[in-house]
Design a protein that fits this description.
This protein is 30% helix and 27% strand. The protein is an alpha+beta fold and 376 residues long. Strands 10-11-17-14 form a four-stranded mixed sheet. The chain is elongated, with a radius of gyration of 35 Å.
Length: 376
Amino acid sequence: MAKRDYYEVLGVDKSANDAELKKAYRRLAMKHHPDRNPDDAAAEVKFKEAKEAHDILSNAEKKAAYDQFGHAAFEGGTGGGGAQGAGGFGDIFGDMFGDIFGGQGGGRQRQRRGSDLRYNMELTLEEAVRGVEKNITVPRMSGCKTCHGSGAKEGSKPSHCGTCNGQGQVRIQQGFFSVQQTCPKCHGNGTIISDPCNDCRGEGRVRENKKLSVKIPAGVDEGDQIRLSGEGENAGTGGINGDLYVSVSLLAHEIFTREGVDLHCTVPISYSLLALGGELEVPTLDGRAKLKIPAGTQSGKMFRLRGKGVKNVRNAGFVGDLYCEVMVETPVNLTKRQKELFKELDDSINTGGRKHSPEGSSWSDKIKSFFDDIVA
């Protein structure tokens, strides 16, 4: 597939200056960066495309060659695409946005960052609604306490890498093109460890089970994440820790189901209470509550108890509601006398017709009309 014009990729004119090129690249890289678009192959392609275009057009010599010969000027593999392969997406992003994310960029050595970790935490509904503090144990690679993360044995220290002059990266000159790569001698550390630490064997990190206390705010929901900065994996010699993300998973509740900040429950109710009306005791997370049932209430009616739901984790002043659906419970295992009473009641109600059963009478009328239409 033919490559798109680099100016078209960045959305700039051929007369664009360095500041305009940089601004255009920033916008595209921020939009399509893989960290912001996980598992999105199309975004990854657009990110690489923008990186390659900027690499060429921001270099005066490469830009002049491209303006004269187009993509053919780099068919030998020395163009922007080759320069990209040396580092990961983090390195590419750091080159351009080091001032935003703390990287140094500009060909200088950047501090390596360890991997982020995820911990799945199961919570009861009550814990999620009210908030809770949990103690957890996370297996991870941590900075070696013996050598303080240097990787060198006590009494010694890492030596300066002469290959990259301590920069962690080297430049390879190919004609008038220059490609920057990770130093093959020190593997990007900028230092060489000749006498490694016995505990970490020169890695600067060891495996441990880290005990942490995690504060869960009130109102968290299924899938919410709590970020613990610096509690992820250590990157090794000269590196820093990634982050730990605690992902919330809610256990099923015997009574309530949750939808956002609202709670739902189904309450069994008798025929007589629906017909005559009265008070019904219902559960809430704060205790028992009285629900007034109007006479003639139909099964399936939903009652709303304001403020008896869940606090909004992002807006503590807002609390959801509790919705109680009353469902008639059909009596079972009736005695002979109870069956007789039900039959008497049923006969009495049927005698009243539409007066006592408006829905049933309306249904009967619709059925009669339906069959009359068929016969006609």
